[in-house]
């Protein structure tokens, strides 16, 4: 190889901030307290311990500027994996290679001394992350301002609510120049305003090259933040790939579990026939993520809107702000659905949910449906001012109430439409059309008015 020429793959290797290879974590299971005495014996006499494997053979890489989500049911090993990645816990087997500064939001309040004040904990935590006293002093006002906990900053942390504790911990984590940010459900305890502020900051930091390892039960947060996703099941890797695909497969698996539970409840009632998840004959051809117990299945869907391009034949309709939009979809019943709900959800290209509704929420209660019923539902709305781009429309049929329901058929992004440039909002995803009225307690000068053009 000529002198000065880089070896293939070296640049890519330098971009890898975290490498996890074959990581497993086992915990000894003692059948009785006396079994702990074995740990006092020489290793050759201890015998093979009985282990519970919280993690088995986990491998992945996290590159600079990449976000990796971790999903899975409770007890699947998500938090254990983050603690091993953070160096808090050692793996039983495998290795973790870290190339950069790491900040973590793991267990709420971890790394804080509850007897210290918030101010003292900021100074302690930043020093543990490698910042000098001078650097901490320079950044302290910004840390305190983002946390926004007021006078509590000089009160012992043990007096904080969980939300205040999360505010301070998150603020410290984003001000220590970390290369990797680990987040384990910490944002779930924050109020909506602070949570949205955190999400905006996470997106900004990711755009600047921050890498994120993100554990959450919120599929929308994972899809909005993460490029890739790892699905853990009983401590083992189930699927690793693009976030949209992995989250879709995970949600489908959860729906299958719900359907199995429903089947057991259904069969336990003597007045009902055995539950059968039947395959339905003519159904809309759709290759995307789809799940549900199949008691009802969406059989057709289209947009019917004057002036819009037709939605059939693979042609994506184009909508402008103010257009009247008619969404029609049909579903066929294979088994009875006592409390049917039909609805839709609109997401942007990043998977962020923008607006949705359903028949029950709009005050239209569908009657109980039985096998072979074929129902068509139409939703009519006025298209708001959306940012230019392509939007996906997810369709769903469920059985139950708004608070508790079972999914019969959920077809993610079954339809799509696009919005062209020209009348987009100045900021955000959706523009608000409103009228403004101004009143004044003082009489105006003679001949002057306040109206749409201001004072004249």
Overall description:
The protein is α+β, with helices and mostly antiparallel strands. The protein has two domains: 14-32 and 46-246, 3-Layer(aba) Sandwich (Rossmann fold); 283-428, abc- transporter (atp binding component) like domain (Coagulation Factor XIII, Chain A, domain 1). Helix content is 23%, strand content 31%. The protein contains nine helices and 21 strands. It has helices at residues 10-14, 43-46, 78-85, 118-128, 133-147, 162-173, 192-207, 219-225, 243-267; strands at 16-28, 51-63, 67-71, 93-98, 102-105, 180-184, 211-215, 228-233, 236-242, 290-291, 296-303, 324-333, 340-347, 353-358, 374-382, 385-386, 389-400, 405-419, 430-431, 450-451, 454-455. It has a six-stranded mixed β-sheet with strand order 5-6-7-3-8-9, with helices on both faces. A five-stranded antiparallel β-sheet has the order 10-18-17-13-14. The chain has a three-stranded antiparallel β-sheet with strand order 2-1-4. Helix 4 (118-128) crosses helix 5 (133-147), helix 4 (118-128) runs parallel beside helix 6 and helix 5 packs across helix 6. It is globular. The N and C termini lie far apart (77 Å). The model is unreliable at 1-8, 269-283 and 309-313 (pLDDT under 50).
Q: What is the CATH superfamily label of the largest domain?
A: P-loop containing nucleotide triphosphate hydrolases
Backbone structural class: alpha+beta
Tell me roughly what share of residues is in helical segments.
Answer: 10-25%
Question: What is the makeup of the main sheet?
Answer: 6 strands, mixed
Strand order of the largest sheet: 5-6-7-3-8-9
Determine the N-to-C terminus distance. 77 Å
- Please state the CA-atom Rg, rounded to the nearest Å: 27 Å
Number of domains: 2
Number of strands: 21
Q: Treating each run of at least 4 consecutive H or I residues as one helix, how many helices? A: 9
**What's the CATH topology name of the largest domain?**
Rossmann fold
Give helix and strand order, one letter per element, not per position: HEHEEHEEHHHEHEHEEHEEEEEEEEEEEE
Shape: globular
Overall pLDDT level:
79
Beta-strand portion reads 25-35%
- CATH top level assignment of the largest domain: Alpha Beta
Please state the second-level CATH architecture of the largest domain: 3-Layer(aba) Sandwich
Low-pLDDT runs: 1-8, 269-283, 309-313
